[in-house]
What does this fold into?
Amino acid sequence: MKIKNVKNKVTEILELHPQARDNDMSLLAIVWNIELGGKEVSENMDAFQFLCLLSKKELSNPVSLWRCRQKIQEENESLRGEKWKARQEHSKNVKEEIRTWDVSDNQMELL
It folds into this structure.
């Protein structure tokens, strides 16, 4: 699926389903349910059928959906969830920790 189509789909879901703004698994479940043909189809599908579709890449890639959600929320404040600001602060802390990490302090054995 093209990025523009993913972006449009994710934007619509974030608008209609606010819980998906803070929950990537919810976003993924909604997208895949739509792609499978809705509740009627997905309710009657067994795990093997689902896994076959997943392995054939007939369902959206979760990482693409999550990255798209991040970009949409970065650009559109109204689609940010309640946890968005906390995630941004945590991200700054992680970046600082990585930036100041001294490899010599953490000797690791190579396997």
